[in-house]
Amino acid sequence: MKISDILEEKLIVPNLPGSTKEEIIDSMIELISQSPKVIEKEKVRKAIYDRERIMSTGVGNGFAVPHGKTDAVSDVVAAFGVTANPIDYQSLDDKPVRLVFLLVGKESMVGPHIKLLSRISRLMNKEDFRNRLFELKTSHDILEAFRLEEANYIEM
């Protein structure tokens, strides 16, 4: 499963509003709730925050990947946003976050969920890719950047 296959233009925000970690996560949850794959938004919210309480999903290099598993989705759903300003996300490297990739999978799909998280992390660990994402102004361009980066660096 490719990252670019689960991302949709309507679930990508080039200028994500919010000034706190919680506002950013809540904005992303509101965004994915537009997807028909989301059955129950509040259960999705609980899964995301339950995971966040275990350990911050601010993984470093200005990137966070809030995620969770729940049967409140019918299939894997994802959203991506670039924050307007750096956000204190209690990241592992103590640096603020501007790139946020939200991933929610079905409870029974542990393997694909872990594989997607790994692919997301691999892409987002590339400094030139992260810098390119900051420059893009449209959801379409951001999705195309993910497609190109996957084609170049990830064997499917």
Descriptive account of the structure:
With 156 residues, this protein is α/β, with parallel strands linked by helices. It has one domain: 3-Layer(aba) Sandwich (Mannitol-specific EII, Chain A). 44% of the residues lie in helices and 21% in strands. The protein contains 6 helices and 6 strands, in the order αβααβββββααα. The chain has helices at residues 3-6, 21-32, 41-54, 110-124, 127-135, 139-153, and strands at 12-16, 58-60, 63-64, 67-69, 77-87, 97-105. Strands 1, 2, 3, 4, 5 and 6 form a 6-stranded mixed β-sheet that branches. β2 and β3 form a beta hairpin. α2 (21-32) runs antiparallel to α3. The radius of gyration is 14 Å and the shape is globular.
In short:
This protein has 156 residues and is an alpha/beta fold. The chain has helices spanning 3-6, 21-32, 41-54, 110-124, 127-135, 139-153, and strands at 12-16, 58-60, 63-64, 67-69, 77-87, 97-105.
List keywords for this structure.
alpha/beta; Mannitol-specific EII, Chain A; six-stranded mixed sheet; 6 strands; globular
Biggest sheet: strands, sense, closure? Answer: 6 strands, mixed
Count of individual domains: 1
Report the portion of residues in β strands.
Answer: 15-25%
CATH superfamily: Mannitol-specific EII, Chain A
Beta-strand segment tally: 6
